């Protein structure tokens, strides 16, 4: 008998015959109101991300300016991304599709990636991707050093319970709270360790 088996056997013996205990869980239920765009934008900025709040007719111009500002010359474009978002991106910016899947070296060499999202959480400033249309597989947003994400206002929910309620639990989800960063070594913040060094978010009203 292994140590694990011995411990579990002692636990089973100790609780044998004990009545079942009802566990009361005080989880906060999902609310019905929409998310607070201003709160979401503020929380995302707190994570040192770049944030733009624009009307729908300014998305293409904002995307083009953001890419130009970052000096992006090659851009990973996941399948299903709305073409109008890239309509003002100069033709000289190379667009890299992911079919067939790009190799890790190609993703690493790309100037950045632009995606949509599945949800945004106002309370925590978190963006959730679930590999749906316009988002691509997880590697697309983890390997390139720059991630430009477009979040629609109606995708923003108040808190985590509301996000969980609208997400499909069987999909591969990535929860993003700002650029990749760690302070593991002597509490010095280092960005870009296990994901994009720069996160830029366009919130569409």
Throw out a few tags for this protein.
205 residues; alpha/beta; Rossmann fold; 6-stranded parallel β-sheet; 4-stranded mixed β-sheet; 5 helices; 23% helix; 22% strand
What do you see in this structure?
This protein has five helices and twelve strands. The protein has 205 residues and is an alpha/beta fold. β5 and β6 form a beta hairpin. The radius of gyration is 21 Å and the shape is globular. It comes from Sphaerisporangium dianthi. This is Lactate utilization protein C.
Question: Topology of this protein?
Answer:
Blueprint: H1 3-15, H2 37-46, E1 50-54, H3 59-69, E2 74-76, E3 94-96, H4 104-109, E4 112-115, E5 119-121, E6 126-129, E7 146-152, E8 156-157, H5 160-166, E9 174-176, E10 181-182, E11 190-191, E12 198-204
Parallel strand pairs: 1-12, 2-3, 2-4, 4-7, 5-8, 7-12
Antiparallel strand pairs: 5-6, 6-9, 10-11
Alpha-beta classification: alpha/beta
- The CATH topology is what? Rossmann fold
Radius of gyration: 21 Å
The ordered H/E elements are HHEHEEHEEEEEHEEEE
**N-C termini distance:** 62 Å
Question: Helix tally?
Answer: 5
Which parts are unreliable, with pLDDT below 50 for 5 consecutive residues or more?
none
The appropriate CATH architecture is 3-Layer(aba) Sandwich
Within CATH, the superfamily carries the name NagB/RpiA/CoA transferase-like
CATH class: Alpha Beta
Shape: globular
The proportion of residues forming helix, as a percent range, comes to 10-25%
The largest sheet, given as strand count, sense and whether it forms a barrel, is:
6 strands, parallel
Q: Taking all residues together, what is the mean pLDDT?
A: 91
Strand order of the largest sheet: 1-12-7-4-2-3
What's the total count of β strands?
A: 12
* Percent of residues in beta strands: 15-25%
């Amino acid at each position: 008998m292994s140590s694990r088996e011995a411990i579990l056997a002692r636990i089973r013996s100790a609780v044998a015959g004990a009545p079942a205990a009802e566990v009361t869980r005080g989880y906060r239920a999902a609310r019905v109101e929409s998310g607070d765009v201003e709160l979401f934008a503020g929380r995302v900025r707190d994570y040192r991300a770049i944030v733009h709040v624009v009307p729908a007719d300014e998305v293409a111009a904002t995307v083009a300016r953001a890419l130009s500002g970052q000096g992006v010359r090659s851009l990973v474009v996941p399948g299903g991304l709305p073409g109008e978002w890239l309509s003002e991106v100069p033709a000289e910016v190379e667009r890299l599709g992911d079919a067939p899947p790009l190799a890790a070296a190609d993703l690493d060499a790309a100037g950045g990636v632009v995606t949509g999202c599945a949800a945004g959480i106002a309370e925590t400033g978190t963006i959730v991707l679930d590999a749906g249309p316009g988002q691509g597989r997880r590697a697309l947003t983890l390997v390139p050093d720059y991630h430009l994400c477009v979040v629609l206002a109606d995708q923003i929910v108040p808190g985590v319970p509301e996000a969980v309620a609208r997400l499909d639990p069987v999909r591969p989800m990535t929860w993003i709270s700002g650029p990749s960063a760690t302070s593991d070594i002597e509490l010095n913040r280092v960005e870009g360790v296990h994901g994009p060094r720069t996160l830029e978010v366009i919130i569409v009203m």
